[in-house]
Amino acid sequence: MVAILALRHPTSKGTSQNSSTPARTSSTPASHSSSPPHSGSSASASSSKPKPNPKALPLVVLNSSPVQHLASDAADLFTSAGWKVSSHANYRNSILSTCAYYDPSVAGAQTAANLLKSEFPDILRVKPKFSGLPAGPIVVVLTSNFKTA
Asked: Fewer CB within 10 A of the terminal residue: the chain, N end or C end?
């Protein structure tokens, strides 16, 4: 509260008696109170390190549908949206609906998979990876519900 008053007085155009006395009185507490915010702001500066970009985690895109070129078309779509696609291929398995599978041992993979789902509503589910999927932090298995156009 004292710091706010100190900030208001230097910019106000009040009378010189009213603005100079409170400004001098409050400048001393403000200078004392500026030390804790600086130490707090340096702590927040260290805690505000740039967070990893979820889109930097590579995607493996698999087509588990009869739709020709769905994996390559989806890979192009993901890439144009800023995602990194490491590979794409056909895949045979009985997947119910398009899903982004994430590797729980990779930091940020679940967050990235959820972001991908939010950007592409045809990805209906986000689940942990199961054995039998290729290596990668995120594997997107496409079914016929996924539309690239």
From this structure: C
> What is the dihedral angle through the alpha carbons of 108, 114, 118, 119, rounded to the nearest 10 degrees?
50
- Reduced to 3 states (helix: H, G, I; strand: E, B; else coil), residue 62 is strand
Which structure tokens are listed for 132?
A: 């039998």
Instruction: Provide mean pLDDT across the span 74-85.
Output: 98
Q: In this structure, what token pair is assigned to residue 108?
A: 């940020």
Work out whether strand 99-102 and strand 138-142 pair parallel, antiparallel, or are unpaired.
Answer: antiparallel
Domains observed in the chain: 2-47 (no CATH), 54-142 (3.30.70.2390)
Strand partners, 89: 62
Residue-wise pLDDT for 123-134, tens only, equals: 999 999 999 999
Residues, the chain? 149
Question: What single-letter amino acid sits at 76?
Answer: D
How many CA atoms are closer than 13 Å to the CA of 130, on its beta-carbon side? 6
